[in-house]
């Protein structure tokens, strides 16, 4: 957020997250932007994946001009005026183009109360990951439904295993995904998670754990994918946030392929939406330049080229449909696009991000202790009502 008086260089500072997918494309696009605009320098710090999902925005806005962000923060950002509304700083034609080029609901997920608080630069959802070479070797068919998944467990040889990232944060994402698959996108009403749906999903998750690699309850997506790519033991992960890096030649010892997660064929919902938006601190002293950079990163040409070529997982449909990008990533983008298009978007109202952090820990601890699903859902809804009652500032 500084201006170097000696050289008159405008210094922007950004915060990314700690994976090559998170920081490498931003460093590359920053270098490119500074070549076009020598008066601007952009430096990036990184934070852990958990910090990306949990750290309050108010802890960042005094230090950083550019903030990578998850869409459930939009409501809190709006109420507390933490981020710069972008609709007044960018041309309508540009925003309409980005909306048309949205990968599933990514673009709209950064709107709240008529204001756009981030531009989609990275698109993701829970998808399935597989060691295609090993799946072919043992002649098994990948599951298309959750019912198929239970049959799949029993068909794979004992030397192989299925893993599913179910650390607290990812257990939460899976729980919401399965609830949305079973009861539709509106399974949360009036500050309450549908109890019957929640109980059934928790009971099912407990059954899955009987078949999964024992470390699944502790692992995050990166840990699961690292194990899949480095050894020949884990051959499938049914619900894991996709990382294009692992589908590229040379990134790891073994290539991991990605496809659509198992679904409930009774509904038209896939899995939970992830991804990354690039937002501007409301306290940035160089907001115009920060907006200019954010729009540069989000535009189709940058996303299709520099962003993807430097390990990024773009948020623009033009990049996802590009043939050379799909060849580079062994059809990663085409193979999971259906999941992206039908993704479930989490609530964004104030208090949701704090609720999901504590709710995730509640479920994670309860499942490990063997707590009855009925009690877990009851406790979860009581926690939700407590956060909803703090100022009563938002709606579902």
From TrEMBL:
<dbReference type="GO" id="GO:1901982">
    <property type="term" value="F:maltose binding"/>
</dbReference>
<keyword id="KW-0813">Transport</keyword>
<dbReference type="GO" id="GO:0055052">
    <property type="term" value="C:ATP-binding cassette (ABC) transporter complex, substrate-binding subunit-containing"/>
</dbReference>
<protein>
    <submittedName>
        <fullName>Carbohydrate ABC transporter substrate-binding protein</fullName>
    </submittedName>
</protein>
<comment type="similarity">
    <text>Belongs to the bacterial solute-binding protein 1 family.</text>
</comment>
<dbReference type="GO" id="GO:0015768">
    <property type="term" value="P:maltose transport"/>
</dbReference>
<dbReference type="Pfam" id="PF13416">
    <property type="entry name" value="SBP_bac_8"/>
</dbReference>
<dbReference type="GO" id="GO:0042956">
    <property type="term" value="P:maltodextrin transmembrane transport"/>
</dbReference>
<dbReference type="InterPro" id="IPR006059">
    <property type="entry name" value="SBP"/>
</dbReference>
<keyword id="KW-0732">Signal</keyword>
């Amino acid at each position: 957020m500084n201006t170097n008086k000696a050289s008159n260089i405008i210094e922007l500072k950004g915060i990314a997250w700690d994976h090559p997918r998170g920081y490498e494309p931003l460093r590359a696009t920053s270098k490119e932007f500074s070549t076009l605009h020598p008066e601007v320098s952009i430096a990036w710090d990184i934070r852990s994946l958990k910090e990306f999902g949990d750290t309050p925005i108010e802890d960042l806005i005094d230090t950083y001009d550019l903030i990578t962000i998850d869409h459930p923060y939009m409501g809190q950002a709006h109420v507390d005026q933490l981020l710069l509304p972008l609709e007044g700083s960018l041309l309508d034609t540009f925003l309409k183009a980005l909306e048309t080029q949205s990968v599933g609901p990514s673009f709209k997920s950064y709107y709240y109360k008529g204001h756009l608080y981030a531009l989609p630069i990275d698109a993701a959802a829970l998808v399935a990951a597989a060691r295609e070479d090993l799946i072919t070797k043992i002649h098994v068919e990948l599951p298309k439904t959750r019912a198929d998944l239970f049959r799949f467990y029993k068909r794979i040889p004992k030397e192989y295993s299925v893993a599913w990232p179910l650390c607290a944060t990812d257990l939460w994402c899976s729980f919401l995904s399965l609830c949305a698959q079973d009861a539709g996108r509106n399974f949360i009403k009036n500050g309450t998670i549908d109890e019957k749906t929640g109980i059934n999903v928790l009971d099912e998750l407990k059954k899955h754990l009987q078949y999964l690699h024992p470390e699944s309850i502790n692992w995050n997506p990166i840990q699961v994918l690292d194990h899949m790519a480095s050894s020949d033991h884990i051959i499938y992960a049914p619900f894991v946030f996709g990382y294009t890096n692992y589908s590229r030649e040379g990134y790891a010892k073994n290539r991991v392929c990605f496809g659509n997660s198992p679904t409930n064929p009774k509904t038209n919902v896939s899995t939970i939406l992830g991804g990354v938006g690039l937002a501007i601190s409301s306290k940035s002293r160089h907001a115009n330049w920060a907006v200019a950079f954010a729009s540069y990163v989000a535009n189709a040409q940058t996303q299709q080229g520099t962003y993807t070529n430097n390990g990024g997982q773009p948020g623009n449909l033009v990049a996802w449909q590009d043939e050379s990008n799909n060849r580079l990533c062994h059809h990663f983008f085409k193979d999971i696009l259906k999941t992206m298009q039908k993704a479930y978007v989490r609530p964004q109202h104030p208090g949701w991000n704090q609720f999901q952090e504590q709710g995730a820990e509640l479920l994670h601890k309860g499942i490990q202790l063997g707590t009855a699903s009925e009690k877990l859902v009851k406790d979860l809804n009581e926690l939700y009502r407590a956060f909803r009652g703090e100022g009563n500032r938002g709606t579902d």
